[in-house]
């Protein structure tokens, strides 16, 4: 990168970080730090949602994953995103909002008891700090591959960026995070468009991509040159080969590892993507800071609508990379290194700086979001509930600020685990099915059914035990521990999410036989809003909301469009 490129990076991101420090001066209370005093409008929240959902790890890891596996991950960013945003904003988070909860974990205490609140906080901290590790590692790859820094200098810059992000998050809380995210989302969009257009032209557009893919065999199948990939992922004997053109069409793609039907792959991705918007306080925290329920719903729809086309460009970069560098992973190189290589080879001076500015913005926007959300989980659901209850709001505000630095540093611990996998997304998938998917089922059952209060712990025990057994079996440890293994259909890397949801929800349903049902609506009568939070508003208007501004119509259009788009163009 040239001096001009570095100036673009420093000016754009330096100005936004400086603005974050400016905003942090206005935060004085716990409700302002954790929930921005419930004052955030829909458009600012929507931009923040997309900036948080799309981090530098997505840009790097999704490009690499598509290079290795094709475009079936598209389901996460189309159908699953539309469903997940609407499910969270219309059916789940409003209950938390009305109860005056500070975190999504706090809701589970009202619904299922304090043990579920603790487990939810611990699971989310573990899950999201692992994602922090992905972000740190992907940013390191960018600094090495695109900028050409020495490893020592790259790590020093990463630590400095984490500390700067923590500084304005520590003092400003959610309001500072949301408004800096909103600005950073604009830089992310600009950088993504630049690299996409440059590589699109180099490949020859959509027609050029299809023509080149049609001439290439799928490298994950057994070919004349032998197997390309790890021994654990080798295809079953006798499996037929497929052309690489199938990677564009999910309905024609066959997973070479286990011959899973395309609908099975789509279903697995859908559960992962939908659950992200509920079992992830970096997103629910934003919705809980909305100035009204109307703003909450519109923000979620707006954020999803912005993020979907952006992630489509990232996924196509993976396919472009496959035709430009068909032997990229033949040696020791991993596909996660593809994005910085594309940036280096196809961007000119100035554009490279803009793309790097987008990478830094994507990194910072999610660092600050995770810092504020995970510190809220630790402070409200662990520290204030179990370790130091009954303290003042000023005490918990200070504790939350200190916890922000700690949770951001935890991400570094996951780096050895992440680099042991062929692709960063493979590492994430291995963790999600253990406790995150059962927890998602518990949130669904807790808000959509009248399952008894005792059902939450029963579901977590059953779903968590199943998830842990599957994880141990993938590591070849389960048989040595208990003398047997689960059937392959249960540990299939796509069907495992269906089994996890089914076993968790099924075991919770059985508790109807032993305990009294408890509708979630009854909780409102037993709970008083925290005194420092403003009252619940249905909408911000002085008159009734007109029909054309009803969020449900926009949600319906968003979902139907994404279903049509996915099946019409990519099935």
From TrEMBL:
Broad class of the protein's primary localization: membrane
Annotated GO MF terms: D-glucose:sodium symporter activity
Pfam families on file: SSF
Cellular compartments annotated: Membrane
Residue ranges of the TM segments: 6-23, 35-54, 74-97, 118-140, 152-171, 183-203, 260-279, 300-325, 354-378, 399-419, 425-445, 457-474, 494-515, 553-570
GO cellular component: plasma membrane
Residues in the signal sequence: none
Membrane topology summary: Multi-pass membrane protein
InterPro entries according to UniProt: Na/Glc_symporter_sf (IPR038377), Na/solute_symporter (IPR001734)
Record key words, sorted: Membrane, Transmembrane, Transmembrane helix
Family assignment from sequence similarity: Belongs to the sodium:solute symporter (SSF) (TC 2.A.21) family.
Protein name (record): Sodium/glucose cotransporter
Species, as recorded: Polystyrenella longa
């Amino acid at each position: 990168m040239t001096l001009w490129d570095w100036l673009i990076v420093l000016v754009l991101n330096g100005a936004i970080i400086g603005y974050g420090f400016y905003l942090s001066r206005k935060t004085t209370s716990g409700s302002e730090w954790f929930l921005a005093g419930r004052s955030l409008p829909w458009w600012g929240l929507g931009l923040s949602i997309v900036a948080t959902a799309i981090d530098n790890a997505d840009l790097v890891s999704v490009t690499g994953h598509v290079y290795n596996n094709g475009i079936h991950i598209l389901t996460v960013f189309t159908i699953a995103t539309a469903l997940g945003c609407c499910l969270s904003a219309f059916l789940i988070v409003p209950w938390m909002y009305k109860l005056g909860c500070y975190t999504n974990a706090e809701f589970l205490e009202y619904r299922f008891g304090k043990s579920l609140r603790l487990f939810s906080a611990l699971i989310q901290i573990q899950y999201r700090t692992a994602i922090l590790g992905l972000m740190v590692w992907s940013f390191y790859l960018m600094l090495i591959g695109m900028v050409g820094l020495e490893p020592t200098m790259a790590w020093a810059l990463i630590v400095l960026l984490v500390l700067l992000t923590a500084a304005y998050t520590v003092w400003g809380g959610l309001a500072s995070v949301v408004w800096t995210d909103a600005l950073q989302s604009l830089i992310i969009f600009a950088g993504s468009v630049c690299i996409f257009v440059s590589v699109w032209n180099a490949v020859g557009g959509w027609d050029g991509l299809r023509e080149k893919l049609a001439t290439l065999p799928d490298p994950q199948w057994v070919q004349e040159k032998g197997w390309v990939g790890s021994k654990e992922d080798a295809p079953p004997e006798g499996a037929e080969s497929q052309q690489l053109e199938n990677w564009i069409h999910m309905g024609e793609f066959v997973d070479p590892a286990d011959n899973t039907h395309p609908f099975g792959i789509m279903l697995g991705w859908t559960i992962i993507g939908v659950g992200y918007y509920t079992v992830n306080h970096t997103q629910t925290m934003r919705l809980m800071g909305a100035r009204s329920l109307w703003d909450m719903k519109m923000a979620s729809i707006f954020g999803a609508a912005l993020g979907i086309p952006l992630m489509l460009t990232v996924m196509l970069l993976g396919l472009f990379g496959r035709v430009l560098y068909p032997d990229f992973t033949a040696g020791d190189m991993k596909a996660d290194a593809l994005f910085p290589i594309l940036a280096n080879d196809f961007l000119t001076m100035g554009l490279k700086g803009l793309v790097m500015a987008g990478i830094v913005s994507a990194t910072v926007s999610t660092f600050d979001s995770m810092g504020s959300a995970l510190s809220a989980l630790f402070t409200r659901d662990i520290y204030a509930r179990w370790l130091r209850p009954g303290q003042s709001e000023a005490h918990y505000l200070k504790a939350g600020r200190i916890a922000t630095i700690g949770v951001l540093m935890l991400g570094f611990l996951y780096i050895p685990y992440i680099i042991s996998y062929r692709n960063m997304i493979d590492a994430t998938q291995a963790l999600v099915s253990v406790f995150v998917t059962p927890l998602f089922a518990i949130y669904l059952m807790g808000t959509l059914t009248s399952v008894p209060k005792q059902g939450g712990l029963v579901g977590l025990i059953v779903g968590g035990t199943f998830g842990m057994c599957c994880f141990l079996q993938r590591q070849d440890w389960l048989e040595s521990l208990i003398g047997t293994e689960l059937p392959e259909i249960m540990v299939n890397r796509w069907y495992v999410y269906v089994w996890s949801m089914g076993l968790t929800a099924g075991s919770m349903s059985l508790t109807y036989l032993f305990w009294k049902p408890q509708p979630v609506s009854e909780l409102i009568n037993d709970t008083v809003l925290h005194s420092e939070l403003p009252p619940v508003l249905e909408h911000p208007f002085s008159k009734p909301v007109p029909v054309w501004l009803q969020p449900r119509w926009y949600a319906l259009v968003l979902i139907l469009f994404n279903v049509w788009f996915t099946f019409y163009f990519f099935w």
